[in-house]
Amino acid sequence: MTLQFKNVIAKLKKSSFVKNVLVVMTGTAVAQVIGFSLTPVISRLFSPSDFGIFGSFNSVATIIAAGATLQYTQALMLPKEKVDAIYLFIISCLCTFIITLLCLIATMSLPETLNGLMKTSGIWGLVLLVVATLISGLNQSCQAWSVRAKAFKHTSASQVVRSLSSNGMQIGFGYLIKAGSVGLIVSSIIADILASLNLARVVLRDLAELSYKIKWKRVRLLAKDYRDFPLYSASMNVINSLSLGLPVLLLAHFYGTMVAGAYAFGMRILSAPMGFVLTAMRQVLFQKAAEVYNDGDRLMPLYLKFTVGLFAVAFFPSLVIFIWAPQLFSWIFGVEWHMAGEFVQSLVLWMMFMFCNLPAVLFARIIRIQRKMFIYDLVLLSLRALVLFGGGMYLSAVDTIFLVSLVGATMNVIFICIVGFLIMRQESNTATDVMTISK
What is the pTM of this model? Predict the structure, then answer.
């Protein structure tokens, strides 16, 4: 038994996948420790209403940023040739500039509507929205290229840079100048800029190396070849972001910014431990799965292994949070965040299954079932909107959030099963075709 254990350890030490996960996870761990350790200070410098405005701004910015690259960032993982991948990187950056320009036009045409959604006033929120869109799109492009290039030390370092700068500036803005929601938003944008600059070094090095091979005719051809990503993945990503951002926007509409802020703060705390595992896993697992798929190997064993493993990791912490969340929030973050703890008791059910669906999301892109994912996200958005509108009119905030969580958990379980079935069916068909040819 001891010998078998030693053999397993030896294999893990030699595994490039495990090494890459540990590299990214180390940076993520440092980032999450910094963020979580400073949150009790930040929670006492900003009110739930400040977080409500910050959450509303982030919801709108995230929805727009979800379509900033038209998801060509996901496509650049797929080509076997490095030069084709750099073409897709260029396409994703061009898309970002176009979406940013459209966002600027929207802020000039519909300032009152956008300010109403974000719960901001004046021009500052609109300017920051445009800047956030540009930075987010470029960050996604640089992040995707760094993953493609297996520059996991840079992606790991960027997480630390983002967390340290964001939380540090939030404390500075909150303590020194009482900046309120503006301080939270500006800190987040500057942190993204600094993280992007760290990743840009990898991109510029590879771009300089391949620049002589770039032909614009090939750029147009690849944009057309991978058009299913803007048609389905980008649309789906925007819908998914709208689905996730909708609770903050509608809770602010029906119950006020204080309730929306408690919800946004609770989601921020739940996302911290999830991000510790998922940020590393998302980057490395996507690269590994794409490699397995390109080599013609089976995806199903990898899919089952990681889905079941993530559920095992999530179950016990979720149970602890479900039982003691309100008391923990009051003790750690202050009594004004007790409501956030009550919300988290319900939200942890949804977040647990969202945590487990990472392999489903990544593998669905690899086997290119974007159309089915698009339909799924439309159904999820419709159900979530129905629950929020119905709850906002007839139920308390706690009951509404419980129903939102229940819908999210149920739909994530269904999604995991659908993707698993489609992978299994696709691999079964491939095996049948091979047997037919061999005969």
Answer: 0.80
